[in-house]
Each structure stands twice: as structure tokens, then as C-alpha cells.
Design a protein that fits this description.
single chain; 349 residues; alpha+beta; Molybdopterin biosynthesis moea protein, domain 2; Hypothetical protein af1432; 3 domains; 3-stranded antiparallel beta sheet; 10 strands; binds fe (ii) ion
Length: 349
């Protein structure tokens, strides 16, 4: 058994001795094969080093996320965590720092080919507002690029994604992380977060108006069913429309303390359904068309346990978890007719 510094850990290494926090929380059992997100988690808990039994589990495929991406990601999470701690303590947003994060670190991460795939593999815990904010900022940047948004506007969109939930820093964790149904009073508390976030940046002359609107309007919906103002249609700023889609996608594809994450396809299916009345149809179509390109040809596990490859991935309809696939023995299966669905996407090396 060897002691390995957390910064030198790699996915696939096997834990030799239980990892416990100072408060006695068991983070990892002995024998666990490390995944990328568990390494992120060790950084988040500030665990300096762990005992490793073996450099690689023989039967396990290491995750495909390149070390350089993971390193940049972990560093960026760290900076955001510190900045958000500052915001919640002092009720003041360090604007220059946030702009620099958006225009440099996050724009670079979002530029990586396959970034959405990597984000999914790192298995973000969206319980933490700082991690959720980073994944929304990155995903919003990716959608923004697909919409040909560039330069200063792209930087502003990323900044709006980064700041969209800062109002949540003032919602009590007992409400934020409550697994069950919220009481009307608790829900009212949650509904205040876009306005709270906006209040923190409203008076800042350096922050563009679009960023402020992106923050306050990210829960507004096209049919007027959203909050806080119940705005409809084009009264909602484009940044807010993009962040709404990124927010739903990131929240559904991340594990929560009380539920396991969905596959990207299941999350896309929800977005396709919500496009009918709630989400912007043009941005939605851009999102769906590009996601179709990303996932066509992917290897998947079906609900009956068999492996298959996606051949034809839906139109713009609701059936994203039930496409046409080719089974391992070469048969073409229309999952809608077979009564099967996709339960997991296989990550290849
Ligand atoms: Fe939000």
C-alpha cells in the first residue's frame, strides 16, 4: 500500500484504506476503484492524500476524461467555491474575478472537444451550488457557440451562467437539499433566488444588462408559467432562455443526495417535451440537433440489460430514450415498438 497525494490520484486507482473526513464521514470504502468525480470530491473535502492498494484495477476501464481537463476543472471548481464563499459572507460579488473566470478558465474548458461527455463522466454533484454553476456556465457556453454567439457576448453568457444561482447561497441548506416535497412557504423561499441573485449585481455598472437579465429570468418560461415575474415569450432575454435549458440538463444529469442522475438522453427527452410550451423553440431545436449528432453511434445498455448501438436518434419529438438501435447480434430494434428504453450510455476508451 502506498500513500498518494490527492493531486496525483488518477481514475482506476484502488483505495487501500477507508477515507474518512475529520467529522467522521466515510467518503470512500477500502477497495473502491476511483472515478474522476470521486477525485474531485476528495479535493472538495480537502483530503490531502489517501492510501492506494493498486495503481489500477485490472478489470476496470479507466475513465476517458483526460487528466489535463480534470485538473483544469478541479482548479476552476476550487476558485468558484472560494468566490462563492466570499459572496455568501460579504454579500458582494467580486466582479473582475468572475469576469476573468468566465472569459478565460471557463471559456477554455467549454472549448474542449467532447466537453459535455466529460462533464457527464465526472458525475457532478449538483447539490453544491458552485459545481452546478460551473456545469451550467460550461453548458450554456456550448449552446451559445452552437447559436454562433461569440466574443464579448459569449463571455457575458458564461458569466450569467456562472452567476445564475448565486441567490441560492442565501437559501437555508435544509430547504435547498430537502429530498421530499417542499411546503408552500419553503417553495416561496426557493422562488426568491433569481431576485436575490439579481439584487447582488444590479448596481454593478461593469456587469452588462444581459447578464443581469440572464440571472433574474432563468426560471421564467415562454408560456408565462415561470417565476419570479411570470414573463412570457420574447420578454425573456436570450441568455436566460439558454441558461434555462442548460440548467435543466445539468440538474437532471447530476447525482443528488436523494436520487440518482438520469442519462443525458432522458434529460434531453424532458427538454424536448418542455419545448412545446415552456422553453424557447429555436434554441431548443439547436440544442436537440447538436445533441443528436453527439449521441448517434453511441453504445448503450437497454432496459433488458443487452448492449446496442444508437442508429437513428429521434426527430425533434419526445422519444430520445427509445431510438432505433442495432443490437449486439446485428438486429435493428425500434425501441418504441419493443417496449425497451436506454438506461445507460457506455463510455468507451
Ligand atoms: Fe435557479
Amino acid at each position: 500500500m502506498t500513500k498518494v497525494a490527492t493531486q496525483d490520484l488518477r481514475p482506476g486507482m484502488v483505495i487501500g484504506r477507508e477515507v474518512v473526513t475529520d467529522d467522521g464521514v466515510v467518503l470512500l470504502e477500502s477497495g473502491t476503484v476511483l472515478t474522476a468525480w470521486q477525485i474531485t470530491n476528495l479535493h472538495n473535502w480537502r483530503i490531502p492524500a489517501v492510501d492506494i492498494a493498486a495503481a489500477e484495477a485490472s478489470a476496470t476501464r479507466p475513465a476517458r476524461v483526460p487528466g489535463s481537463f480534470l485538473e483544469d476543472y478541479v482548479k476552476t471548481v476550487d476558485v468558484i467555491r472560494h468566490t462563492f464563499e466570499h459572496i455568501s459572507l460579504f454579500r458582494e460579488v467580486p466582479v473582475l474575478e468572475m469576469e476573468e473566470l468566465a472569459n478565460q478558465r471557463i471559456a477554455l474548458l467549454a472549448d474542449t472537444v467532447g466537453v459535455l461527455d466529460y462533464l457527464y463522466q465526472i458525475r457532478l454533484h449538483s447539490d453544491h451550488t458552485f459545481e452546478h454553476s460551473l456545469s451550467v456556465a460550461i453548458t450554456a457556453a456550448v449552446i451559445g457557440r452552437w447559436r454562433h454567439i461569440k466574443g464579448k457576448e459569449l463571455g457575458d453568457l458564461i458569466l450569467a451562467g456562472l452567476l445564475h444561482d448565486i441567490g441560492k447561497l442565501f437559501v437555508p441548506p435544509a430547504i435547498l437539499d430537502k429530498p421530499g416535497v417542499l411546503t408552500p412557504a419553503e417553495y416561496e423561499y426557493i422562488r426568491r433566488h433569481p431576485g436575490e441573485g439579481h439584487r447582488l449585481i444590479a448596481a454593478s455598472p461593469q456587469i452588462a444588462e444581459g447578464v443581469k437579465l440572464g440571472v433574474i429570468q432563468h426560471h421564467e418560461r415562454r408560456d408565462g408559467s415561470g417565476y419570479p415575474a411570470g414573463l412570457a415569450g420574447d420578454a425573456i432575454h436570450d441568455y436566460a432562455k439558454i441558461i434555462a435549458i442548460a440548467d435543466i440538463y445539468c440538474a437532471m444529469t447530476a447525482d443528488r443526495a436523494y436520487r440518482r442522475r438520469l442519462t443525458p438522453l432522458a434529460a434531453i427527452e424532458v427538454i424536448a417535451e418542455d419545448m412545446r410550451a415552456k422553453l424557447d423553440p429555436e434554441i431548443g431545436v439547436t440544442f436537440l440537433d447538436n445533441m443528436r449528432d453527439c449521441f448517434t453511434g453511441s453504445d448503450v445498455i437497454l432496459s433488458d440489460g443487452q448492449r446496442a448501438k444508437i442508429v437513428v436518434l429521434g426527430g425533434r419529438d419526445r422519444y430520445w430514450t427509445k431510438p432505433v438501435v442495432r443490437s449486439a447480434d446485428g438486429r435493428m430494434l425500434d425501441l418504441r415498438e419493443e417496449g425497451l428504453s436506454i438506461v445507460e450510455i457506455v463510455q468507451e476508451n
